[in-house]
Design brief:
This protein has 214 residues and is an alpha+beta fold. It has seven helices and ten strands. A six-stranded antiparallel β-sheet has the order 1-10-9-6-7-8, with helices on both faces. A two-stranded antiparallel ribbon has the order 2-3. A two-stranded parallel sheet has the order 4-5. Helix 3 crosses helix 7 (119-132), helix 4 (75-89) packs antiparallel against helix 7 (119-132) and helix 6 crosses helix 7 (119-132). The longest helix is centred in the N-terminal third of the chain and has 17 residues, at 40-56.
Length: 214
Amino acid sequence: MSEKYLARLNEAQFKKLSNNWFKTILYWIIDSKYGKAKRLDKFISDQLNYHFDLMAHGKTNALIDLAHRLQGKNPYHTVYNIERWVWEHIDYLSDIKNWGMSEYWADAVAVFNKKTDDCDGQNSLIHILCRLAGITGSNLYSVIGDVDGDGKNDHYWALFFDSKRDRFVKLDTTYYPEVKPINQKKEFKQGGKYKILNYAFNENGIWRFKQADT
C-alpha cells in the first residue's frame, strides 16, 4: 500500500468525521525534564518498527506475546479485548507521581512493565497493542484534544474506524471510558465531553484540525 494511497484513505475517513482536516507535521514535548520533542507519527512508528523487526526475525517479547494472546476471532473482538485488558490492568497515575515529570510519554513497553500511567500512556498502549495484534494501521488513530472538565483539559485518546458500520468509535480508558464491544459503542462525534480534536496521528502521518492552535 503506497504512502499516497494511505494518505488518501486516511483523509477520506476523516471527512466522515469532519471536512476540516489536513495533513501536517508536528513535534510534541514528550519529556518535560529534558525538553525532548518528537514527531507524533514517529512516536507511534518507531515503537511499531522495533516490534515488527523483532517479529520479522522470529523474536518476541512480553508486549508481542500479550498482543497475540488478545487476538480475537475478528478485528472487532481484538480491539475490544485490548481496550478491556488496558482498562483492567493499567492504573491511572499522573506523570509527576509516576515519572517525576510534569509531562512524559512513556513507550508501550514501559507502560506495560510499570502497569501505571496517565492518558497518553494508557491509550497509546491500546494503539500499539492493536497494531501488534494485526489491526490495520489506516483504521487506528491516536488523538490529542480537549475534554470537558474543570478548566482546560488536554487529553490523549484513540479512535478506531469501524469500516463495517462506516463510523469512528473511541478507545479511552481514562477520562470517559466506554469499554464495551465495538458494535455496542456509540459513534464518536466531536462535541459534548470531547470538546475539541486538535490532532490525529498514526504511523502513516499527522492530521491537523483547522481550529487547532499552532
